[in-house]
């Protein structure tokens, strides 16, 4: 990576500003003063100092976002506000959401730039669980529960994997699935003869929504959460 780009990604100034400061001798790499903005560095290996202070670069970052309704799960959108607009990380410009939540769906969404981890978490073969709190238009009954738990047809090439249902109230359930088909939860309840009026994801794998986070707020994953995610990606939940 070019030295000037590296400093920009650390949000230490605009490209023109950091170029001037490099040429002025204010940046060193491995104890050697640099004068060329085009100098190639290894962010994970080289020791970079800016105005005498060490620069710390994280190649991968992991955020837990409490997604509110009205925001789209995309990296950019010409009309709508995106989940990345909520994060506002000026250092890492390659962030993306791990999977998608519908615009009107709330709850847990992981944001990262670790493509390999995201691929593993979303891979159908890993069977990573996604748990949702579902508020329904009509009372939920045993017949609907049986349909969801036996593996149902919703117009896909093959029947869905069996879901797990916990009834909380007459019109409120917890639904756990291991797939991620388009509008899957809403289509499942519709096919079972009901309708979702509010949907919130509360868990993905071993990561549980932090209810102390207000809607629209986010935080870094803890070390323990990251370790559990690495376990999730192996497919042994």
Describe this entry's structure for a reader:
By secondary structure, the protein is an alpha+beta fold. It has 3 domains: 3-54, RNA-binding S4 domain (Structural Genomics Hypothetical 15.5 Kd Protein In mrcA-pckA Intergenic Region, Chain A), CATH 3.10.290.10; 59-126 and 210-237, 2-Layer Sandwich (Alpha-Beta Plaits), CATH 3.30.70.580; 129-204, Alpha-Beta Plaits, CATH 3.30.70. The protein is 24% helix and 24% strand. The chain contains 7 helices and 13 strands. The strands form 2 sheets. Strands 5, 6, 7, 8, 9, 10, 11, 12 and 13 form a 9-stranded mixed sheet that branches. A 4-stranded antiparallel sheet has the order 2-1-3-4. Helix 1 (3-9) crosses helix 2. The longest helix has 11 residues, at 223-233.
Helical content class: 10-25%
Secondary-structure element string? HHEEEEEHEEHEHEEHEEEH
SSE-based structural type: alpha+beta
So how many helices? 7
The CATH first-level class of the largest domain comes to: Alpha Beta
Domain count: the total is 3
Q: In the CATH scheme, what's the topology name of the largest domain? A: Alpha-Beta Plaits
Shape: elongated
Largest sheet: 9 strands, mixed
